[in-house]
């Protein structure tokens, strides 16, 4: 099946489930809501010592919007976990509109101004959204690949890390 971006392996789990980020991935820049550049490393540093769920999404992505209520439920049920939302909107205007439209303004949001193809997304084999990753308290990848907030391994990984 050919996906939206011509990726023939859409929703196919990567062959290698990585447990750390490359130097190139960590220096990848995103923009926050104010348009300020921030690197993946800076985002991870802000959440060091906490379990972090990274949610890749976009307002134009039907699968993402269908998953949104369950993602919100996951967040609500895990008050001791940090959540970061990385948007794949096609423009800053689209990013801002989606944050308003889907009541995301009070969350930790960034968007890839560089587009889908960049060092971070290439490194993590991002071939479809939504996608969820869990990063442990030491900024290592604890759960590399999930495509639904209802994936039982997400909650199992969170529970294991919070013990």
Explained architecture:
The chain contains six helices and seven strands. With 163 residues, it is of the alpha/beta class. It has a single domain, classed as Glutaredoxin.
Output the structural class. alpha/beta
Beta strands, count? 7
Span of the ends, CA to CA = 40 Å
* Biggest sheet statistics: 5 strands, mixed
Low-confidence stretches: 1-9
Fraction of residues in H or I helices: 25-40%
Brief summary:
Pfam families: Thioredoxin_8. The protein has a single domain, classed as 3-Layer(aba) Sandwich (Glutaredoxin).
What would the keywords be for this entry?
163 residues; Thioredoxin-like_sf; alpha/beta; isomerase; disordered N terminus; 6 helices; two-stranded antiparallel sheet
SSE arrangement:
Layout: H1 23-26, E1 29-31, E2 37-39, H2 40-46, E3 51-57, H3 62-76, E4 81-87, H4 92-101, E5 108-111, H5 119-123, E6 131-135, E7 141-146, H6 152-162
């Amino acid at each position: 099946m050919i996906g939206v971006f011509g990726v023939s392996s859409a929703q196919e789990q990567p062959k290698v489930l990585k447990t750390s980020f490359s130097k190139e991935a960590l220096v990848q820049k995103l923009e926050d809501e104010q348009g300020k550049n921030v690197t993946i490393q800076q985002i991870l540093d802000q959440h060091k010592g906490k379990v972090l769920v990274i949610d890749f999404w976009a307002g134009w992505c039907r699968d993402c919007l269908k998953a949104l209520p369950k993602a919100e439920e996951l967040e609500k049920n895990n008050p001791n976990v940090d959540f970061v939302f990385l948007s794949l909107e096609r423009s800053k205007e689209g990013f801002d509109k989606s944050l308003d439209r889907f009541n995301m303004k009070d969350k930790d949001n960034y968007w890839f101004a560089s587009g889908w193809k960049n060092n971070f997304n290439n490194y993590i084999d991002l071939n479809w959204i939504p996608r969820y990753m869990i990063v442990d308290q030491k900024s290592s990848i604890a759960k590399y690949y999930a495509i639904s907030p209802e994936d039982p391994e997400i909650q199992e990984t969170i529970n294991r890390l919070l013990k």
